[in-house]
Each structure stands twice: as C-alpha cells, then as structure tokens.
Amino acid sequence: MLEGWLDFHRGTLEVKCAGLDDAQVREASAEPSALTLLGLVQHMAEVERNWFRRAFGDVGAETVFEDETGYTLTDGRGLKEALAVWRREIGLGQAVCGGRALDAVGHIPGGGPFGGAEVSLRWVYLHMIEEYARHNGHADILRERIDGTTGS
Prior knowledge:
By secondary structure, this protein is mainly alpha-helical. It is built from 4 helices and 2 strands; from the N terminus they run αααββα. The chain has a single domain, classed as Four Helix Bundle (Hemerythrin (Met), subunit A) (Up-down Bundle), CATH 1.20.120.450. Helix 1 runs parallel beside helix 4 and helix 2 runs antiparallel to helix 4.
C-alpha cells in the first residue's frame, strides 16, 4: 500500500509536467518565490537519492545536481534530462530497498540534529509520500499558472 501511494504521487508529479516545453517548466510560481516545475523534478531526484540510497544504501553525500536541494536550474538542462535523472534515482532506490522489510533500519543522512538517527523503511515511505504530496500541491499551482490546467 505504501509503495502504491508513493508511485501514485510520483506519477502525479510527472503528469503535472506533461505536455510542457522547457521554457514553461522554468516559469516561477509567484514572486518572490523562484519555485519551478523543473526545480521540483530535480529536487525530488535529490530527495529520492537521499532517503533511499543514502539512508539505506552506500551512496555518499554527493548530489545528483549542482546543490543538495536540486532547485538550482542550469541553462543546459531541460525537462527531458531532469525526468530521466529522476526516474533513474527512483529505480536505483527501488533496487536498494526492494525486498527489505518495512521494519528495516536505515539512518537519516547528513548532519544536523537528526543526522545519523535511525529510521525504518516504513518511516521513509511515509515521509516520501508526504514530501511528494506537499510538492504536488506546489506543482498544481505552478501548472495552473503556466497554462490554466487544473486537477490531476
């Protein structure tokens, strides 16, 4: 059930980007925010890497994109490339965590007050569902601003 909901939210993000060109996915939501659909896809690639491959695998602190948030846009990267990287990170995370029990233990990556703390795979799934749901709300607003499309 958790994997199903996570896949649903992953698919929702992809639908929010469908049919848009590279210029459109670079359109910011509303000042002063610089949030874009392209930035959200990149961010979620970083999040996938962080919570599955870093917490449960042997991937170090290196990032997929230029910064740890993934929000920074570069001139040369468009939606097609960002989606390919995002899908790759999903697949690699599934390979690391597939078949593990929901009670399997990983560690929160990074420093800070929670860095290194133990978390279960169940906790990570719930966190990822929340992360996608929150950002899909942002994607709803971005998509509506870009071309008026609403709904899933």
